[in-house]
Amino acid sequence: MPLQLDTYRPDHLPAMVALYNDQMAAEPHVAPLTPDLFTQLVTPKSYFDPAGLFVAVQHHQVVGWCHAAVAHATETWMNPSDLFAAIQMLVYRPQDLHVGLALVAAATRWLHAQGHTAIHAMNTQSGNPFYRGLLMGGERLCPASLPHIHLALALSGFQVIGENTLKVASLDAPPGVLPARIHLDYVASPLASPHHAVNQSWLGFAPQVIEAFHDGHRVADVGWVLLPHHTAKLGRLCVNLFMLGVNESHRRQGIAAALVSRVFSRGYQQGARLASLSTEMWNLPAQRTYHKLGMSTHGLMLDRRLLLPSASASR
Asked: Rounded to an integer, what distance in angstroms lies between the CA atom of residue 58 and that of residue 14?
């Protein structure tokens, strides 16, 4: 029976999540999915379009799926008016490369037909509109431990544009809070943004922010969130650090370490016994800071992007 590509229907969902859980079973930092979780965290979002969720069916069985979407920037440091076209998720079995290629081709055509020429694939440079809090420490990044996913994307022309490492640390005892080398005042609060896309990306979670002030001026901040859905695999609640920034004029003052230690402490107080974060491979100062804080490298994740000609140029 030939491969058939359907667009998403709710009756596909049980088989979709079963395939997802089977393919992600070996990666402890990818949370398991259930149909209920999918309908709580994915389909209610305003930029969810079932026409962009392609489901591969063969012999009456779901053998793969690919979620493509166009969404506004979801990070506080991004321009909120920017739109990004991206393959948000790709799932298929390693032995079914033809399925992966067909799904990527369908998703790419759908996004290109809407006028987009830069197509991202499971990376955070386009933000985290979907699957936030579920993948690789909370960010929608594709681990190198899924080489068949990268192969389908690479053979479809998606090139690597970034490398990220996932850092983890056990919180077996109450973490110590480190001081910075300058006096700082700290203010902790829930993450609040005036932009709908930022807030909607965190649907189902309660992200927090700690800001650092020196002489009344904000010089740094850190964002963190608890990841309850990872507990089923990890056996422990995990706190994830999803954002860290220090003003250039105040770097090398121990501020980053002071903020990260406060996240570990607050997470521990709320029951977390594991911490995670991702950072760019090239960011050597951050890599050194995290290792000094007891974090180790769990895995490598690759950002990919495809650049296409404009519709007018391709005529």
From this structure: 16
Q: Which residue has the higher pLDDT, 314 or 271?
A: 271
Residue-wise pLDDT tens digits, 13-50: 999 999 999 999 999 999 999 999 999 999 999 999 99
For the residues 245-255, what does the mean pLDDT come to?
A: 94
The continuous run of DSSP H or E covering 103 comes out as helix 97-113
In a domain, 22, yes or no: yes
Alpha-carbon separation of residue 69 from 45, 120, 269, 303, 314 (angstroms): 11, 10, 37, 17, 22
Evaluate whether 278 touches 167 at the Cβ level (below 8 Å). Answer: yes
> What's the CA gap between 180 and 174, in Å, rounded?
19
User: Does residue 140 sit within a domain?
Assistant: yes
Do 115 and 223 reside in the same domain of the chain?
no
Token pair listed for 107: 């998703």
Per-residue pLDDT tens digits for 54-79: 999 999 999 999 999 999 988 888 88
**Domain membership flag for residue 312:** no
pLDDT of residue 312: 54
Count how many domains the chain has: 2
The CATH number covering residue 199 comes to 3.40.630.30
Helix (H, G, I), strand (E, B) or coil at 217: strand
- Classified as helix, coil or strand, 223 is strand
Based on the domain organization, do 27 and 12 belong to the same domain? yes
Task: Classify residue 313: in a domain, yes or no.
Answer: no
